[in-house]
Amino acid sequence: EPKRKAAFGSVGRRIPYRILHVINQDGESLGNMHRAEALKLMDQHGLKLVLLRENAEPPVYRLMTGQQIHEEQLRRAEKQKASPKPGVVQKELSFSSAIAKNDLETKTKQITQWIEKKYHVKVTIRQAK
């Protein structure tokens, strides 16, 4: 079974890198330091080390409180939810030109809901016999 990637970097003591670039909880750079020093700082302040950028040289970690980690996870989830999904969802609705008023209102509400959900809506009107 494939390993699940953490929602927001690695948190805590399992750090595979020897040299890290550390940022404190206020966003100020503490510079490059050895993993042991970073863990000692983490323990002294009661914080967690969170991986921000793995591709940087050296990898960037930030000291964060549990509250900051939670807020960042919520922010990232919101951003991901807002990003467009691959493949556009298209909804299609067709009705007769002799549709009753209440049926027309119901279908109009449905179309409004689809548009609010950012779906593409295609409406077809058939001519009554």
Automatic annotation (TrEMBL):
GO terms for molecular function: ribosome binding; translation initiation factor activity. The keyword Protein biosynthesis applies. Keywords: Initiation factor, Protein biosynthesis. GO terms for cellular component: mitochondrion. Residues 11-78 form the Translation initiation factor 3 N-terminal domain. InterPro entries: T_IF-3_C_sf, T_IF-3_N_sf, Translation_initiation_fac_3, Translation_initiation_fac_3_N. The keyword Calcium does not apply. One of its GO terms (biological process) is mitochondrial translational initiation. Belongs to the IF-3 family. NCBIfam families: infC. This is IF3M factor. It comes from Todus mexicanus (Puerto Rican tody). The lineage of its organism: Eukaryota, Metazoa, Chordata, Craniata, Vertebrata. The gene is Mtif3.
